[in-house]
Amino acid sequence: MSLVIVGSVAFDTIRTPWGDRERIVGGSGTYCSLAASYFTRPRVVGVVGRDFPRKTLAQLKARGVDLEGLKIKAGKTFHWEGRYEEDPNRRTTLRTDLNVFADFRPEVPARYRNARIVYLANLNPEHHGFVLGQFKKPALVAMDTIRLWIESKRAALLRELGRTDIFFANDEEARLITGETNLVAAGQALLRLGPALILLKKGEHGALVFGRDFVFGVLAHPCEHVIDPTGAGDSFAGGFLGYLDKAGGLAPKEVRRAAVYGSVLASFAIEDFGIGRFLTLDRGLVEARFRQFRRLTHF
Amino acid sequence: MSLVIVGSVAFDTIRTPWGDRERIVGGSGTYCSLAASYFTRPRVVGVVGRDFPRKTLAQLKARGVDLEGLKIKAGKTFHWEGRYEEDPNRRTTLRTDLNVFADFRPEVPARYRNARIVYLANLNPEHHGFVLGQFKKPALVAMDTIRLWIESKRAALLRELGRTDIFFANDEEARLITGETNLVAAGQALLRLGPALILLKKGEHGALVFGRDFVFGVLAHPCEHVIDPTGAGDSFAGGFLGYLDKAGGLAPKEVRRAAVYGSVLASFAIEDFGIGRFLTLDRGLVEARFRQFRRLTHF
Fold first, then answer.
1. Which residues of B fall within a CB distance of 8 Å from A224?
2. Which residues of chain B are within 8 Å of residue A297 when distances are taken between CB atoms?
3. What is the pTM of this model?
4. Percent share of chain A, pLDDT over 70
5. What residues of chain B lie within 8 A of the CB of A225, using their CB?
6. CA–CA dist B87, A98 (Å, integer)
7. What is the pLDDT of residues A102-129, one digit of tens each?
């Protein structure tokens, strides 16, 4: 049982029609590891600057997140600023300061190298080889990507998809990569690029899971007021991979349950600004919402 | 067991990026009654012109649709022309010729007046009273609406929602009526306008069902290539109401299964132009797809 998450630990400035937050803690590695922490002891590889709050590091550790792979470097932490519209699916990036993330070449601690699952969150696909080369033989390699890499590093991205087991993409990314408007066709086209599992995330509409011989769909938890959608996708990945790490296999039954846990964790992420909701959430609430998904979808 | 559907029986001209069809049979009453015919013997109230093909009327009757309430009047049948984009959720109305539908005042045959379920499909809400007044005491009144009535007959629409049990709306209509962007908030707001059940249809993303004390979600059947989305919403309503008419109650379990049957019937409607798919579909295929929905959503 070991999941290594290579991703950003960052500051986010969030602007929404119902309120703003300046430089709160965010980042794909942060959300993903917090979500995974309900199932396993995730290990994080990333970098922050000296300005990153020690209190947050202590909170992550208290939730069971292993931070040996998180470097603290001289300089400032990665900072992203974005604005959401009334429809929270519409988001605009206002500013990206890479700071210490700019020349980040992830170094994997020796203790992490026999990881069973490695997740590369939003990494430049040209750097995947360097990172994956440091692991012995992960049973599962998972990745997601962002519009920036799809548009600027397409060849490297397609190459990396060819050696990835699990790929997370949102609807826009799936369409951009495959050229398919229909999301089912896009999911099938992504499968043909290599991965054994495609997790196609659709925000308020949930997610579709495409495997070699099955399709599974999970809804989003019905939420009347989304406070801050930042990190929902990363939390989905964390819940999914954290549960898979605990479950140990890739049987369809486990994949289905993992996807539901992904949706459960994403649903908590959006209920408050930043990582706030995860710091008060216990396993009992996660399980209760998992059971609610049965009532929501079974007939 | 009796379901009366008051709606249009019409010609549609459909333009899509992958082909056109001129003046094929369509209409809300047609799709809805065909979908319902897998569960019950739906009764149709509507009007067509003398140009409407007798062969289609025979096909509807062969599927168990009762056409006593369908008037054949001197003049031309209602004709709608629309175009779909590559993304079939985007549709433009190119032309609407109301023809014999223009001064249609639905007359309900005596034999229909003790109906248990009455469904008013896209009717001008100012005409609801005239139609409903002809029934004895329906156990359930269901309706849907269109953008035209939301914008031009808002007061009448809101009044009618106050005496409707089941309301079908797509995402755009739900947002227009309630002013809520979030669909869960929109569904809850619609409940507060009167109906006991809201069926919020989301096209490729399925549908949400809002009741007084439950929310249920059903996916759309994963379809890689949508041929013609026309009639999907009406087929959803037909499958839903047809099953409810057969089941006899409004217990949450029956409502859930009805919604799944709605999604099943909608999924067949979009697989071919017009009503083509329904004319070759048998109950066995409907049941097989219903079972597929279990594999698609249960975990």
1. 182, 184-185, 188
2. 216-218, 297-298
3. 0.96
4. 100
5. 182, 185
6. 36
7. 988 999 999 999 999 999 999 999 999 9
Nearest alpha carbon to residue B49 among B13, B11, B19: B11
Residues 6+ apart with CB under 8 A from B224: A182, A184, A185, A188
Residue B143, chain A, CB below 8 Å: the answer is no
State the Rg of chain A over Cα: 18
Q: Are B238 and B34 in contact (CB under 8 A)?
A: yes
Q: Give residues with Cβ within 8 angstroms of B100, minimum separation 6.
A: B47, B48, B49, B73, B74, B75, B76, B77, B78
Tally C-beta pairs within 8 A across A and B: 85
Confidence of residue B86 (pLDDT cuts 50, 70, 90): confident
pLDDT of residue B90: 85
DSSP collapsed to 3 states, A64-90: CCEEEEEEEECCCCCEEEEEECCCCCC
**A35 interface with B at CB cutoff 8 Å:** no
Averaged over B191-201, what is the pLDDT? Answer: 98
Residue of chain A nearest B188, judged by CA positions? A224
Per the CB < 8 Å rule, is A87 touching B202? no
Category of A27 on φ-ψ map: left (φ > 0), alpha (ψ -120 to 50) or beta: left
- What token pair was written down for A13? 């400035």
> pLDDT at position B1, please?
67
Q: Is A191 on the interface with B (CB under 8 A)?
A: no
| DSSP classification of residue A274 | T
Min CA distance, B49 vs chain A (Å)? 37
